[in-house]
């Protein structure tokens, strides 16, 4: 009976560690400005002063954009077609998307419609 309980505890710890590790990997790319992630470049966009900075980004296919909210206010990053859908980003939260198709992606903050930006993928 005790062995069974111990096995459950070990499994639970392993599950937590697995989740923690995968989240750490995600965060590692959030804050590494311009650092490579796999083969693709990572471009950072700050959300600051109710603006996206830079508001316009030009990248190549396979590259990733990371938005980090540096405002006290909550913001989102979203396109009307749903390609980008960050959900609510509180202060310090980041959202990333790897663009695999060429095109111009115009996005807004769903909470402040005057905040907009674009990602052009070549
Ligand atoms: Cu906003």
What keyword list fits this structure?
three-stranded mixed β-sheet; binds copper (II) ion; alpha/beta; Immunoglobulin-like; 122 residues; 1 helix
Number of strands: 7
Molecules bound to protein? copper (II) ion
Name the CATH homologous superfamily.
Answer: Cupredoxins -  blue copper proteins
Q: Averaging pLDDT over every residue, what do you get?
A: 80
Query: Biggest β-sheet: count, sense, barrel?
Result: 4 strands, mixed
H-E string = HEEEEEEE
Topology:
Layout lengths: L1 H29 L11 E7 L2 E3 L2 E4 L4 E6 L24 E5 L4 E6 L7 E6 L1
Parallel strand pairs: 1-4, 3-7
Antiparallel strand pairs: 1-2, 4-5, 6-7
The site of copper (II) ion has 5 residues, from loops.
Report on the architecture of this protein.
This protein has 122 residues and is an alpha/beta fold. The protein has a single domain, classed as Immunoglobulin-like (Sandwich). Helix content is 24%, strand content 30%. It contains one helix and seven strands, in the order αβββββββ. The strands form two sheets. The chain has a four-stranded mixed beta sheet, covered by helices on one side. Strands 3-7-6 form a three-stranded mixed beta sheet, with no helix packed on it. Strand 1 and strand 2 form a beta hairpin. The longest helix has 29 residues. Copper (II) ion binds next to loops.
């Amino acid at each position: 009976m005790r062995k069974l309980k111990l096995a459950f505890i070990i499994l639970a710890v392993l599950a937590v560690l697995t989740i923690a590790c995968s989240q750490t990997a995600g965060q590692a790319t959030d804050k590494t400005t311009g650092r490579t992630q796999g083969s693709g470049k990572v471009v950072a966009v700050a959300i600051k002063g109710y603006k996206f900075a830079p508001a316009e980004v030009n990248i190549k296919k396979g590259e990733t954009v990371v938005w980090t909210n540096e405002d006290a206010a909550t913001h989102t990053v979203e396109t009307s077609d749903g390609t980008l859908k960050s959900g609510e980003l509180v202060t310090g939260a980041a959202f990333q998307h790897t663009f695999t198709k060429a095109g111009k992606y115009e996005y807004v903050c769903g909470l402040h419609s005057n905040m907009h930006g674009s990602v052009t993928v070549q």
